Amino acid sequence: MAKQVMDMETSKGISIGASKELQRNWTEKTWDFVSQKGNYDRTRLNLNFEIVKGSKIQKVDKSLSIIQKMKENLARRGILDPNDGLAKPIYRTVVNFIFGGSREQMRKLAFGNQLIDESVGADNSNIKRMPDIEDWAKDIYQFVSDKFGEDNIIGFYVHLDELNPHIHCTLLPISDNKFNYKKIFAGKTKYELSAKNMKLHNDLAAVNRKYGLDRGASVLETHAQHKTINQYRAELNEMNKKIYEHIQKQKQFSQQLHDENMIASKRVKGLTTMINNLNTEKDKIQAEIEDLKKQG
């Protein structure tokens, strides 16, 4: 069975660069750069969507950055950002989640049986977004809302323009109307932290199971090191690079087969012409022999 993915990384705020990437709020120059790298497919940009309060699906709203949304959210609730006024932020005020799963299953949820051309510059504008990916995203949104409070979700973006469909969720670790990352996620001891993480992954698995995604082994059992979002992206980029190289090799092989086929076709055509000429000569000789017989 395919495996679920949930990566979490904390930060002391969110950068404008991260906000632009999550919302795909890029200039033409940036789009040209990332498209040439093969990490993003602009022809599938329209398939991306976000989920907002009330579990409503909509086109990604770029009118406000995530930074601005965070400020508006805190102002509306009368909550102070503890990093405001500090020369250097020191408090963990943002939790960044990535939700996803095994590539084959995620692509099936997002695109069904449609084939994606992963080569750089390919046109995939004909690809349609499947309802399953929307249902999955809404269930994940509800999962986060139930666990951490819907008011604390600042951004919830579903990206279908990359190799592996996934969700980016930007969350404020707020409890009892104040920031409290340790209470919500860490706990008082490392054992409480482990128990919380275990329960979070298990509860997520209960949501993901109906979408063909399983829990997988716990890091407590495998001793695997948790990946940061940057590490996760680096792995995706490396995977993109390998797939692109594979596609190029396949294209070269296909061209080689085409060239060899053309040469073989020319040879067959030449042989066919030669045989036809021989048959014509044979018929002429046979006719001459018959004439000689009649004369003799």
Structure description:
- 52% of the residues lie in helices and 15% in strands.
- It is α+β, with helices and mostly antiparallel strands and 296 residues long.
- Strands 3-2-5-6-4-1-9 form a 7-stranded mixed β-sheet, with helices on both faces.
What are the key terms here?
single chain; 296 residues; alpha+beta; seven-stranded mixed β-sheet; 9 strands
Distance between the termini: 89 Å
Structural class given helices, strands, pairing?
alpha+beta
The helix-strand sequence is: EHHEEHEHHEEEEHHEHH
Taking the sheet with the most strands, its summary is: 7 strands, mixed
Helix content: 40-55%
Beta-strand portion reads 5-15%
Mean pLDDT: 86
Q: Strand order, main sheet: write it out.
A: 3-2-5-6-4-1-9
- Radius of gyration, rounded? 30 Å
Point out poorly predicted stretches: 219-223
CA-based shape: elongated
Strand count: 9
Q: If helices are DSSP runs of H or I spanning 4 or more residues, what is the number of helices? A: 9
Give the helices and strands, then pairings.
Elements: E1 2-11, H1 16-23, H2 28-37, E2 49-52, E3 56-58, H3 66-77, E4 94-101, H4 103-111, H5 131-148, E5 153-159, E6 166-171, E7 174-175, E8 178-179, H6 181-186, H7 190-208, E9 213-214, H8 219-222, H9 229-295
Parallel strand pairs: 1-9
Antiparallel strand pairs: 1-4, 2-3, 2-5, 4-6, 5-6, 7-8
Summary, kept brief:
The chain has helices at residues 16-23, 28-37, 66-77, 103-111, 131-148, 181-186, 190-208, 219-222, 229-295; strands at residues 2-11, 49-52, 56-58, 94-101, 153-159, 166-171, 174-175, 178-179, 213-214. It is α+β, with helices and mostly antiparallel strands and 296 residues long.
